[in-house]
Amino acid sequence: MCHVIVTCRSMLWTLLSIVVAFAELIAFMSADWLIGKAKPSSSEDVDNRTGGSQEPYHPTLGIYGRCTRISHMQFSRRDTLCGPYAENFNEIASGFWQATAIFLAVGIMILCAVAFVSVFTMCVQSIMKKSIFNVCGLLQGIAGLFLILGLILYPAGWGCQKAISYCGPYASAYKLGDCSLGWAFYTAIGGTILTFICAVFSAQAEIATSSDKVQEEIEEGKNLICLL
């Protein structure tokens, strides 16, 4: 018989697992890993409403995507265009970034799988006498290691020609040049830290769902068990 067990710790772990997976996925897909050096407005970039020149634009560069501003001369306006600069894996700008993409993709796939499974831990707490919480916690720890490897290798690719075109000639491995780090990089770091927190917290979720109070309510015949 299926017993639906909901506790504060197990629910918090589930929510954190889902948040971490989405945060890492969004960061990976974003082009805001590097913010390029400012491109000054030309004499053509004039705001028709104010008559003043527009602020300098900062293009952004991701692992496989980028955002830049394109001109529409016939309309005297500029639009921001975002999309992948690499049509396939081999066209990613640096071998280090290719390795980063692999490690991050593997880590994110594991996190997404754990997030999916975590939803069902309210009803199923073990498989083949193994606690799902402990197994998921182990997988989250492994995913965190993949994410760390990807984030360590990513700055090594700052010396590639694509990064230099955005960050200037002084950009090199682990040196930003004229660029700055975007929100996607910080989100990936924050998500990695939360991944290890989730891995540790999974043990608390397992303890909460197998406590004496839960066993007492199961023995009383309750199918829906909610505990603080």
Automatic annotation (TrEMBL):
It is a multi-pass membrane protein. It is found in: Membrane. The keyword Lipid biosynthesis does not apply. InterPro entries: LHFPL. One of its GO terms (cellular component) is membrane. Belongs to the LHFP family. The keyword Membrane applies. This is LHPL2 protein. It comes from Psophia crepitans (common trumpeter). One of its GO terms (biological process) is single fertilization. The lineage of its organism: Eukaryota, Metazoa, Chordata, Craniata, Vertebrata. The chain crosses the membrane at residues 12-35, 96-120, 132-154, 183-203.
